[in-house]
Amino acid sequence: MDIRQLIESASQQLSTISDSPRLDAEILLAHSLGKARSYLLTWPENTPLQAQLQQFQQLLQQRLQGHPIAHLTGEREFWSLPLQVSPDTLIPRPDTELMVEQILAHYPTRHPTEAPIQLLDLGTGSGAIALALAHERPSWQISASDRSEAALQVAQRNAERLGVSVEFIHSDWFSALQGRTFDVIASNPPYIPQSDPHLSQGDVRFEPLSALASGDDGLDAIRHICATAPGFLKPGGQLFIEHGYDQKTEVNDIFHKNHFHSIQQHHDLSGNPRLTSGKIN
Question: What is the CATH code for 75-279?
């Protein structure tokens, strides 16, 4: 079978489990060929080598079982940066780019004589937020923490591949950060209720539960972060937290309860409130 036929056949099979079957098929075939997706469009009549075909069929079967594309290729793009991912990390979502956009908007480029921004990415996973910000603001002093040593290893490899400078810290939330303060704390914590049926469906079945679910209402981690963060923020410092689109009111109340002010809620590309920020005195 040539490339065109392989894509058509795989797309039909994947249509039962994927919202983007053709895209999935193209990504897996391009990965198996070691080529960009544009190659598939340029040379649709080419026939893959037997070893390439076998690899593609193996990846296709794993995708049909529900394994995420990012785990099969070992990579996901975030903020136009290629990031390695693994089953030890949450797969970066496009929605989380809103966090990067808002932080950059709140803290434009500073004068060289001003002290650099000190930022903490709390629960960094693959390092997506920290690495995107380090790429955009190389003068900032960026730290990234996670309680998973395996996730930190992935994040460290990503930093080395991208050539950006980030300090990585093994810490269960703030446990290893005593005595330190930051201008900005950013976090994309787990925020799905533990009983949510979506946790047993689709791609998320293969992602770490600890990075997805947090208590009966999904807000345990957010409560802890909001209650603890003021002790790790400099005067006038700001906290940014990603949350579920339907948690706007609850998260706003949590910020108020913990004495944040100038609270703002930011909307994603679909118009859903997905990010809350607030300052301390």
Answer: 3.40.50.150
> What pLDDT, on the 0 to 100 scale, is given for residue 119?
98
Q: For residues 57 and 37, what is the distance between their CA atoms, to the nearest angstrom?
A: 17
Q: Hey, what CATH topology would domain 3-65 get? A: Helicase, Ruva Protein; domain 3 (1.10.8)
Residues forming CATH 3.40.50.150 domain(s) in the chain: 75-279
Residue ranges of the chain assigned to CATH 1.10.8.10: 3-65
Sheet holding 141-146, edge to edge: 167-170, 141-146, 118-122, 182-187, 233-242, 273-279, 261-267
Q: What are phi and psi of 257, to 5 degrees?
A: -60, -30
Q: List the end-to-end C-alpha distance of the chain, in Å, as a whole number.
A: 66
Mean pLDDT by 10 residues, the chain (281 residues): 94 90 94 92 92 94 90 91 89 91 89 83 96 95 96 95 96 95 95 74 69 80 96 96 92 96 92 94 87
- CA-CA distance, 167 to 120, in Å (whole number)? 9
Amino acid at 177: L
Instruction: Provide CB contacts within 8 A for 22, sequence distance 6+.
Output: 7, 11, 14
